[in-house]
What does this fold into?
Amino acid sequence: MLVVAHISDLHFNGTAARRNRINAVLDYVNSRSDGIDALVVTGDITDHGRPSEFEEAGATLKSPLPLMICPGNHDVRDEFGETFLAGQNFLDDRGAVGPLNFARTVADTLFLICDSSIPGENSGFLTDETIAWMDEQITASGPAVPVLVAFHHPPVVLQMPMMDAIRQTGEDRLAALVEKHPNITMFMCGHAHTGAVTTFADRPLCLAPGVASTLNLPFEGAGVINETQPAGLAFHTYADGRVISHFRAV
It folds into this structure.
């Protein structure tokens, strides 16, 4: 059985209150690492993309587990790459930093950690370059290897008006990739600060709760941001072709 710890939307901002929430979640996962195969963090590591926030994040985000982190719309590619992906080249033909995608195999499972961010914007999109890279990675691994895909922005409507306005678009190309590669097993994302499970292209799509805060559904109150809720995380298990997601409040 594969077990993946999944957290999202940490929003490091230099405050002790935020750092305490993040540390509580990390401690919960790390203290149980003997039964977990990997830790995936699906974006919005920082609140404003400031160098000081990335410095804080880099010093805090530690785990004995294989740690895989993708950027979100609150992050900055240059700073993110220098902090978490040092030594890897993501420059495009013009010398600009392109999508921060990387692959890692853990417990005979291929993890594709994808950059759905659009520099300077809050909405998400997987570039054609990213889709082609995913196709290459899955093909090289072979059809018998389970594939778990992580990115920040959900590619579906969540019935959360503010977040639905800045979701991932262009999802038809991602759905076509699933049709080509049926060994894509599940998708993990964040962005919406709510623990949720739905489907995309007939595969589980699992959103981790927000560590920094929760976003209310339309019937939960007039305000959108709810900081009275505890930090949360998800555990995803995969065995015998079935994904099961469990949620915890810390």
Observations:
- The helical segments are 16-30, 51-60, 77-84, 128-141, 161-164, 171-180.
- Residues 163 and 192 are 6 Å apart (CA to CA).
